[in-house]
Structures are given as C-alpha cells and as structure tokens.
Amino acid sequence: MEQTLYLVRHAHAGAFQPDSERPLSVKGKKQIERISSALREKGLIEPSAIWHSPYLRAIETATLLHEGLGLSVGLETIDGITPFDDPSKIAECIDPSNEDIMVVGHEPNLSSLASLLLSGSQSFQCIVFPKTSILSLTRLKVSDQSTPWQINWHISHRHFK
Question: How far, in Å, are 17, 70, 88, 104, 145 from residue 129 at the CA level?
Fold first, then answer.
C-alpha cells in the first residue's frame, strides 16, 4: 500500500510578536488561495489526517488548505513541529502510521524532517521550503515494513501565478 506524506510550510505571516501568535497576512491568504485552487483542480492531495503546529500561522494555513481543497478530514494540533523542535519526534509519530498525512509547520523543522526521512540524517539539508510550499513524499508500506521515503513532487504557490 502506498503512503503519502505532505509536508507544508505555512504561508506568509505578519510581523506581530510573540512569534507563536503571528497571523497570516493578506498576502499569505492569497498564496493559500492560489495553491489550493490549482491543487483542487488536479486532485493531488487527499490526506487522511492534517497535523499542524500550535502556532497561529500554521493553524490558519492548515484551515485554509482544508477549506480550499475541499477536504473532509479533521485538523489536529501536534507537538514537535514548531520551528526549532527536534524532527525525530514527529518522524517517530509518522513512522508507524499507514495513513496519508499532511503536516503543516515551519522552517527549519520541515527541512530537517524531510532530510531525516529521506536520508536518515537531519543535518543533511536536502530540501528547502519556501513559504506556502508543499513537498509530497511517498513510500510503500505493508504492516510494519516499508520502503524508504521518496520525493513525489515539491511545489510552491509561485508555480501557479
């Protein structure tokens, strides 16, 4: 069975402080609208779960993607995906799952998580996430055995201007 993981960096946010309470800017909301519209037409994203960080900009990004893509799955706040969290914690939550999961978070955590999943090392930064970008990873998984994660596609809102 193929499993898909969607790693999403939040959209552009305002400059309010503290960092965890920064909302999306008008620009960020337009970015989400643009990428959602394009992806909805293609039917590329169908997660079974949406996990997001507790930071406001990630919550808003997850909510707008959920609505814009017309998804019916629930949204869940997950620990371990704020900007400087250890990515191995979220990787440990993903590993036993058989579900297609969307993870909405921040840099540098997402780059470290992608590197960890793809290479086994979070210090080998092989992926960079611009704001409002989505990395799709896939693997084959049967019971507790799986193939390594592979890059399926990586896009940003800029691809749909």
Answer: 22, 24, 18, 12, 29
